[in-house]
Amino acid sequence: MNRLHTLHILNKTPDHPRFSECLGTLGPDDAVALTENGVLGLVSSKALSSVQTYALAADLGARGLSEDNLGAAPIDYAELVNLTLQAERVISW
Amino acid sequence: MNRLHTLHILNKTPDHPRFSECLGTLGPDDAVALTENGVLGLVSSKALSSVQTYALAADLGARGLSEDNLGAAPIDYAELVNLTLQAERVISW
Amino acid sequence: MGMLIIIDQPPYGTWAGREALDMAFALAAFDQPVSLLFSGAGVNWLRKAQDTAGIEQKSVEKNLAAAPIFGIKAILADRAACERYNLDIKTMIDGAQLTDANAELMAQYSQAAFAG
Amino acid sequence: MGMLIIIDQPPYGTWAGREALDMAFALAAFDQPVSLLFSGAGVNWLRKAQDTAGIEQKSVEKNLAAAPIFGIKAILADRAACERYNLDIKTMIDGAQLTDANAELMAQYSQAAFAG
Amino acid sequence: MTHSTTHATTRTATPSFTLVITGAPYSSQAPQTALSFAKATVAAGHTIDRVFLYGDGVHLASALVAAPSDETHWPKRWAAFLEEHEIPGVACIASALRRGLVDGDEQKRYQLGANNLLKPFTIAGLGEWVEGNIKSTRTIYFHAGA
Amino acid sequence: MTHSTTHATTRTATPSFTLVITGAPYSSQAPQTALSFAKATVAAGHTIDRVFLYGDGVHLASALVAAPSDETHWPKRWAAFLEEHEIPGVACIASALRRGLVDGDEQKRYQLGANNLLKPFTIAGLGEWVEGNIKSTRTIYFHAGA
């Protein structure tokens, strides 16, 4: 795995101002982990950037979203914990 | 005073999705009363529509905004009460 | 006429939508005419096949399905919001009707309210 | 390095900004390096001449003015947000610095956090 | 529709209000704005039929708030206003139980160690809101901002 | 900087976490997501130094929540997890007092009629958060969504 600078944990809907604020601070070595309502970013017309994107499978399922063809890697809570340790920094939006 | 159909009480910042939702449902005989953080709509680049706009003076003052040249009529709470009775309907956003 | 209860937040992330639904059910229980409008990100309430096993919350799909039985007049969904969230009549639960959340729609109701 | 505390909500309407400021003061009290970043609608914290007599809340201007005295390193304001809210260095309280809230800025801090 | 929100009827009688507060004190400005609105309503000679607390708004009825001495104590301020003008203040029971706000009866029913409802607030169901909505000339909502 | 967030040091020892919850139960999903995260952390053999409740997150420590029988009781669920793994759960005192959450000591100090802090949660200052932030490998925040 490449260097992971900042892991951005994003739990807001794409309509929430903090969703856009988060996208505006992504660096090339960053990754986004979508949680809670943040997973709706994968079906909205608001484009997620080209950084590596993960999404909590539990939250995808609750919102009726398939784990396939969404442009994000589905993860469980254990993988989210791992990502927070792999990253040099974590920001929760 | 002209017929006042719906009074929209708007207390969200212009960045909040409900601010735009409110603007999207304004009719020609409607009026907007900006309260709390809603008064920041008067200094943001997000244009308020052409309907009659009021703003609570107490909230303008708290946020360092002048009552002049803002494109809204400053009102106190008594005037807000009056507006809710003059309108046929009131929606709080 | 009657009351329009508006839900503009998705389910599960916050409780505002659940509490809006309770308001609608209460009005219906007292024979007051009431409809639901899903707007903004709230349209995600209407997506089919919500599986909440992973988050230990009850699915809201059953609650919504019960709405007509309990006397709620209509389940409306803002067309533009549905498009933004890639929802169409096929991927939405049965009984939802597409509409445009604008001044004309609002004028059909004597009151409109959010739960929070 | 150190912590960047981010405030993206205006004062008075919610308590999130006040509680963020308390976090910054606590860090400074324990000699941890900390700066404040005002972004989005949060830049309205920085507008001069806030008169809170009409809403019975304490003005936050004094709290902010005390920040450097208590050891907070910098008060930063996102330039684009200031422009959106018609704020410039003349209409802002003394001591605030314009910056761009982007990846380069964030990389200068070992941690960044919101209060809520 | 038996609503009294139609105009011919309401303009003649004394206007009356139901106020619904859904934002919590010390988290939103909703209880403050609502109190200023309520005071102006009473000062204008109008009636407030009831104040209904819903969602996070039920925290306004907490008897255990200890606000810093230089900040306004919103629950006490609201309680004094309600008592002075003999206005019923009602917290929605479903919202209250989930959020840890109970009176003596609910304490017994759920075998809890204490109760924390501030007088003169009471706890009741959404029927109180429905009734207020039918009876009052206007129902005005005070939500949390952002 | 004495932070242990630099990597050479942290990769060798057992990773440790401070979790900060700022969203309330039955209003936000934050306490639920945080509990799932916490369980996965412990299951992976990592340490949780403490859980800090801030802002509206302090409501998670209420002893008076009576959740509907078909809904998860998040305060009890969290309390059981903290006790099982002997993890300190701390509610910020400034946030708690404003929001009507008090222990026996604060009840006496402010002459209140009851206390409502759920065991094993305790009440303390922001210094606990600062200390956790310095000591732990990672501090992870769980905010209310929207």
Blueprint (SSEs and pairs):
The complex is a heterohexamer, with 2 copies of chain A (93 residues), 2 copies of chain C (116 residues) and 2 copies of chain E (146 residues).
Chain A: E1 6-10, H1 17-24, E2 31-34, E3 52-56, H2 57-62, E4 73-75, H3 77-86, E5 89-92
Parallel strand pairs in A: 1-2, 1-5, 2-3, 3-4
Chain C: E1 3-7, H1 16-29, E2 34-38, H2 61-65, E3 75-78, H3 79-84, E4 96-99, H4 103-107, E5 111-113
Parallel strand pairs in C: 1-2, 1-5, 2-3, 3-4
Chain E: H1 7-12, E1 16-21, H2 30-43, E2 47-53, H3 74-85, E3 89-92, H4 93-98, H5 104-109, E4 122-124, H6 127-135, E5 138-142
Parallel strand pairs in E: 1-2, 1-5, 2-3, 3-4
Helix pairs in contact in E: 2-3
CATH architecture assignment of chain A: 3-Layer(aba) Sandwich
Mean pLDDT of chain E: 93
Q: What's the N-to-C terminus distance of chain A? A: 24 Å
Morphology call of chain E: globular
Mean of residue pLDDT values of chain A = 93
Profile the largest sheet of chain E.
5 strands, parallel
- Could you state the CATH homologous superfamily of chain E? DsrEFH-like
Order of helices and strands of chain A: EHEEHEHE
How many separate structural domains of chain E? 1
Extended strand count of chain E: 5
Number of helices of chain A: 3
Largest sheet of chain A, order of strands side by side? 4-3-2-1-5
